[in-house]
């Protein structure tokens, strides 16, 4: 019998798969990446994630320094501490990347997301939807006799909770911007 014994059903791991399912737990991390605002940069950053099998839970990007031609990409991703460290290291090596901050690891941060909800309803369901919107501080930005469009800003968890309550009341569509985040205090990612 050979010293190498491969069991049926065992899976091989990718060279990029740094997860050890027995010891480390995946965590959600919010990364702020300051990049050169030029064509193709976002595609390269996304390519880094997809090429290595990392998932992106949320992605936002916008120019933050017009004169310096810099944009801020906010990425929410999941992984073990080793995977998150690997993502940061790979992002830092990219030429158009100026800076990378793991807002989750650096301390408290403020996260907000904008969402629009289209809810259809009549009678009691319509009244209940309006009452819940008031509790969640969602604004009515469009109204017809059969539907509402609510606008809400809050944490991703608040957005999820509102969506869960609206589903049985006639939720038709959701549009979400993705997470925007800043560290608390005087530190800066820019």
Automatic annotation (TrEMBL):
Catalyzed reaction equations: 2 pyruvate + H(+) = (2S)-2-acetolactate + CO2
GO biological process terms on file: isoleucine biosynthetic process; L-valine biosynthetic process
ACT domain segment(s): 30-105
Alphabetical keyword list: Amino-acid biosynthesis, Branched-chain amino acid biosynthesis, Transferase
Described function: Catalyzes the conversion of 2 pyruvate molecules into acetolactate in the first common step of the biosynthetic pathway of the branched-amino acids such as leucine, isoleucine, and valine.
The protein, known as: Acetolactate synthase small subunit
Pathway(s) this gene product operates in, as recorded in its UniProt entry: Amino-acid biosynthesis; L-valine biosynthesis; L-valine from pyruvate: step 1/4; Amino-acid biosynthesis; L-isoleucine biosynthesis; L-isoleucine from 2-oxobutanoate: step 1/4
InterPro entries tied to this protein: Acetalactate_synth_ssu (IPR004789), Acetolactate_synth/TF_NikR_C (IPR027271), Acetolactate_synth_ssu_C (IPR019455), ACT-like_dom_sf (IPR045865), ACT_dom (IPR002912), AHAS_ACT (IPR039557), AHAS_small-like_ACT (IPR054480)
Self-association and partners: Dimer of large and small chains.
Domain of life from the UniProt record: Bacteria
One GO CC term on file: cytosol
Region named Disordered: 1-21
Gene this chain is encoded by: ilvN
One Pfam family per UniProt: ALS_ss_C
EC number(s) reported in the record: 2.2.1.6
Family listed: Belongs to the acetolactate synthase small subunit family.
A GO MF label: acetolactate synthase regulator activity
